[in-house]
Inverse folding.
């Protein structure tokens, strides 16, 4: 088992490294292809005339005239060991590891911006993941055990509706009902859980529900079909033939097998959401990673985009790694 | 199995009878119509006996087994008739009552031991679970008992293999483990549904041997469901031949192979190539294919494939459903052909080509 | 480790040069790779030095337990997979090592029928498309058009030609196997590799398909490599039989000799394990039970690969004889005319099927059927 974990871990590190190389190259290619001096993407302005010796000097200070591998190493070593950032004009800034660079437009370290956004995104993702997992799996299990029953039909019609409703519809509708019409949640501005847990909870409820709504529907349908399939397996018949009671048959023998593929999908879904909950964050005005991504794309703030991309990629790889390990624990047939 | 009079009688007539199935019907309503998987099946079984139920796919033999175990309860299947087990009728029994019977009184093993074992739990866990449902014992005792059973069914190094998962066992070992699971509560009736179909002949021989040994030891009754007449000849004391959801011939194993009287049984016997006979130039298949269980042929179920329906006067094969009638002690046949003529056909037309 | 190619004489029914000559064929699958550096465990020796010949119009039965390599041998012969080493000569032409492009014209001559008539037919294609596909793949135009040819084939294998536009799920298991046979027949092959073609069928239907295969053989002069685990069917259909165990040939001889006086202890065990549908015979037969499981083909036993499960080794041999089984691998060699056996202590037995050493029917067992193809 330990060997299996080490191998998977090594694999994950290799993937993250490849991601860093590829993103680095893509963001190198953008200035080249758009014939823009890379300085523009870093500072938001080109303070000197093209071709002027000052611009050349500035380009040199940022290291854009170095060979690619040297630039990459500079970037990588920044992430690994930290660096000092200077544009040659302002006071040099200490950027501790992991250093994703400095946003000259926001006048803030990218790492600081990300660190502010991550708790918001995590609050949103973890909370809604729990909601949709519990909701989706229970609806799906009940439906799958009684296909064609009233509960099944209500559950599946409801989930079909939920799958078809986009967040930019459900979100505003929820806000309209609970914040403006009923007035149950008058102030939904975000507060960190460490400072004001009650306000945190208040601010997160509607985002959780609207994000979980869509996923719960998907998970309910998935659980239902897995459950239907599992309950017709031969080993379920064996379990019944032993004289086990229905609860044990369903939970110990049925659900365990039906949920295994869901573990995989759940891990990947959660991993993918890091940095991509753009719509939810926008609808509810949450300053999370998705919000940061969109605003930095709009402002062409390359260092932030680069930083968020790597953080999101790492999140996905980590999720994948956790899923692999979990799968090996759950399913003994996976060769360890 | 005992001599059964033409009129189905209650189990109490013969004190030796342990399981008595009476006019069992299992019908499944579907969108295409009512599927009559089992349609009026009657047989008796004593302890210590092995009863073979033979038939092709769709003959209703597996459905019968599952009905005895009450596995259709909670589904849409409509079940009527009686299944007397030691004087208790299982057909009207509740799911809770059946649960107490399953595993402890009646146990079952299935065709494919790999898919019949849960892939996520160890062999030992699954077997001891079967023991603990019916016996209030500690985990340690259940484990001890499980290892004993694994040894009894011939799994070498049983203590170590307790913690193995099904995929780490070979096909034959898995079926042994299934047998251990089935017999751990010493059931009075073991139902084996095609237990060796998925196995190699060499392993089949071992498994059949094991079933016979354990039958002797526990004095259990065994129902062996199979499509292989060779397996029946090797293992069983009595045979029920099923076709289209009905028993078409029943009898002691010697009678069935020596003096079979139903044309379907003749067809089965002559369609299989036999190693112990002169090699035939051609096999003699039964023409056509098994009947639809939704639109069962009028009259005799076998009439569309029967070569001898012209031997019956008045087209009765196509209009009147024949009864299962005794032809010799313990031997019953569902056929309109006159018994004398049947024996004649067997002697002159069937036997020479077997 | 090398196995001598024992010359198996052609059966009297098939004189002349062999159609297919398989010599010392091996198929080793690479072991599971362990770790990042790709260290591999021992290769799985699925087929390990198999030799046999097939003459025109004859049927070679290939039998053995699951995992003995018989199916892999069939796939190698039909070139679905490339052998690791050895030679496959078809009409004198070497097939091993041929590229797919070079193989294509030969594909029409060697066809295959599979066990599972459910999964080997594409459910989204009509019968017409399935049976006609070989024409399209080989880019040949049969006389009178593809449709006419396909309907002719359907009629020949006992299907209603009007069902041209139906889908596989509308047919029963036996009919689906007929579809598979029609597809294999389309390009008039000379050799058909039949991989467990009747194992999934009910007895009564199985007999129909076996008869069909025999009729087609006489009509078109086909040769079959008939892979099956059912020894009764193999006896019925084969002219000669090859018994395999753990990737190797244990015994090979003509059908009657194999069933009447087999010499290899493994053949003895196989034959004795087949139940006979006759309770009287059953009660007097000796059942030779093999103990233990099939050893791993990636780590076969030393010496004779069968010694770990051999009943003879266990009960009849002296310690010095056993030592020989453990240390020295036997060679497949001709012990009696036309009967090659891989065993140091081969000995014929005649009592396995009917439980009596000499039965009046023995002469009857000798009867062979006439063959129009010969």
């Amino acid at each position: 088992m330990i060997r299996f974990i080490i191998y998977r871990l090594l694999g994950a590190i290799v993937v993250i490294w490849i991601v860093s190389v590829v993103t680095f190259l893509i963001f190198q290619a953008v200035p080249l292809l758009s014939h823009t001096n890379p300085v523009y993407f870093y500072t938001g302005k080109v303070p000197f005339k093209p071709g002027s010796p000052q611009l050349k000097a500035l380009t040199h200070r940022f290291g854009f005239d170095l060979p690619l591998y040297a630039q990459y190493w500079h970037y990588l070593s920044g992430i690994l060991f930290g660096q000092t950032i200077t544009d040659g004009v302002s006071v040099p800034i200490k950027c501790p590891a992991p250093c994703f660079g400095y946003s000259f437009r926001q006048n803030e370290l990218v790492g600081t911006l990300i660190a502010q956004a991550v708790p918001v995104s995590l609050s949103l993702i973890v909370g809604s993941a729990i909601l949709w997992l519990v909701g989706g799996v229970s609806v799906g299990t009940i439906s799958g055990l009684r296909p064609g029953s009233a509960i099944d039909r209500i559950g599946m019609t409801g989930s079909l509706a939920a799958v078809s409703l986009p967040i930019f519809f459900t979100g505003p509708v929820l806000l309209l009902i609970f914040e403006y019409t009923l007035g149950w949640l008058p102030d939904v501005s975000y507060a960190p859980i460490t400072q004001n847990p009650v306000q945190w909870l208040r601010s997160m409820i509607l985002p959780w529900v609207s994000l979980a709504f869509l996923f719960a529907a998907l998970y309910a349908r998935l659980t239902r079909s897995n459950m239907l399939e599992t309950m017709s397996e031969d080993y379920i018949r064996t379990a019944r033939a032993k004289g086990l009671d229905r609860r044990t048959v369903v939970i110990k023998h049925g659900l365990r097998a039906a949920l295994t593929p869901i573990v995989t999908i759940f891990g990947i879904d959660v991993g993918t959401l890091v940095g991509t909950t753009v719509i939810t964050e926008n609808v509810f005005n949450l300053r999370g990673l998705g919000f940061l991504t969109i605003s930095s794309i709009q402002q062409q703030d390359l260092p932030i985009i680069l930083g968020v991309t790597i953080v999101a990629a790492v999140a996905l790889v980590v999720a994948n790694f956790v899923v692999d390990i979990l799968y090996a624990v759950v399913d003994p047939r996976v060769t360890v | 199995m005992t001599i059964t009079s033409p009129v189905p009688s209650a189990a109490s007539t013969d004190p030796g009878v342990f399981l008595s199935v009476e006019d069992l019907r299992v019908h499944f309503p579907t969108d295409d119509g009512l599927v009559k998987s089992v349609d009026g099946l009657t047989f008796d079984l004593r302890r210590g006996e092995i009863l073979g139920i033979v038939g092709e796919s769709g003959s209703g033999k597996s459905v019968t087994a599952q009905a005895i175990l009450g596995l259709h309860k909670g589904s849409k299947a409509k079940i009527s008739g009686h299944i007397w087990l030691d004087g208790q009728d299982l057909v009207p029994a509740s799911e809770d009552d059946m649960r107490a019977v399953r595993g402890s009184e009646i146990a079952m093993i299935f065709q494919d031991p790999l898919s019949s074992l849960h892939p996520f739990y160890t062999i030992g866990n699954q077997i001891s679970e079967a023991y603990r449902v019916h016996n209030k014992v500690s985990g340690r005792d259940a484990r001890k008992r499980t290892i004993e059973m694994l040894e009894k069914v011939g799994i070498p190094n049983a203590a170590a293999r307790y913690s193995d998962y099904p995929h780490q066992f070979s096909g034959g070992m898995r079926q042994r483990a299934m047998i251990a699971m089935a017999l751990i509560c010493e059931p009075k009736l073991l139902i084996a549904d095609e237990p060796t179909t998925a196995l190699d002949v060499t392993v089949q021989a071992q498994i059949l041997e094991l079933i016979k040994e354990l039958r002797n030891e526990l004095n259990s009754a065994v129902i062996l469901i199979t499509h292989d007449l060779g397996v029946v000849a090797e293992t069983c004391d009595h045979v029920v031949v099923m076709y289209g959801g009905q028993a078409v011939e029943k009898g002691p194993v010697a009678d069935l192979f020596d003096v079979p009287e139903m044309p379907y049984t003749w067809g089965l016997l002559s369609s299989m190539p036999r190693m112990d006979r002169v090699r035939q130039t051609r096999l003699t298949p039964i023409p056509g294919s098994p009947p639809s269980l939704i639109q069962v042929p009028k009259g005799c179920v076998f009439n569309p494939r029967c070569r001898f329906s012209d031997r019956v006067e008045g087209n009765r094969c196509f209009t009147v459903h024949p009864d299962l009638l005794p032809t010799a002690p313990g031997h019953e046949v569902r056929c309109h052909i006159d018994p004398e003529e049947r024996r004649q056909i067997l002697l002159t037309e069937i036997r020479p080509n077997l | 480790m090398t196995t001598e190619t024992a010359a198996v004489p052609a059966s009297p029914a098939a004189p002349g040069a062999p159609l297919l000559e398989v010599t010392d064929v091996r198929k080793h699958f690479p072991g599971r790779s362990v770790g990042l550096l790709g260290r591999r465990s021992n290769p799985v020796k699925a087929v390990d030095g198999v030799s046999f010949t097939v003459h025109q119009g004859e049927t070679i039965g290939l039998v053995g337990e699951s995992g003995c390599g018989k199916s892999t041998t069939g796939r190698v012969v039909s070139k679905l997979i490339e052998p690791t080493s050895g030679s496959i000569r078809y009409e004198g032409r070497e097939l091993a090592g041929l590229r797919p492009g070079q193989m294509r014209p030969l594909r029409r001559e060697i066809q295959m029928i599979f066990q599972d008539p459910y999964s080997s037919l594409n459910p989204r294609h009509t019968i017409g498309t399935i049976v006609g596909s070989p024409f399209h793949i080989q880019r040949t135009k049969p006389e009178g058009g593809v449709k006419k040819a396909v309907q002719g084939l359907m009629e020949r294998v006992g299907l209603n030609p009007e069902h041209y536009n139906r889908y596989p799920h509308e047919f029963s298991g036996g009919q689906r196997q007929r579809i598979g046979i029609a597809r294999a027949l389309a390009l008039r092959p000379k050799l058909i590799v039949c991989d467990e073609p009747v194992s999934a069928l009910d007895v009564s239907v199985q007999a129909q398909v076996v008869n069909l295969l025999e009729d087609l053989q006489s009509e078109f002069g086909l040769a079959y490599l008939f892979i099956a685990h059912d020894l009764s069917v193999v006896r019925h259909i084969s002219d000669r039989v090859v018994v395999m165990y753990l990737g190797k040939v244990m015994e090979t001889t003509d059908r009657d000799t194999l069933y009447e006086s087999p010499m290899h202890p493994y053949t003895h065990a196989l034959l004795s394990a087949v139940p006979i549908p006759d309770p009287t015979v059953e009660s007097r037969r000796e059942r030779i039970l093999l103990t233990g499981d099939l050893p791993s083909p990636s780590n076969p036993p030393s010496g004779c690969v069968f010694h770990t499960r051999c009943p003879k080794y266990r009960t009849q041999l002296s310690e010095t004889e056993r030592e020989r089984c453990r240390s020295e691998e036997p060679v497949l060699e001709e012990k009696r005319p036309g009967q090659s056996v891989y065993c140091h202590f081969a000995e014929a037995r005649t009592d396995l099927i009917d439980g009596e050493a000499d039965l009046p029917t023995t002469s009857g067992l000798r009867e062979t059927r006439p063959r129009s193809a010969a």
About this structure: Confidence is low (pLDDT under 50) at residues 1-14, 359-374 of chain C. The longest strand of chain C covers residues 44-54.
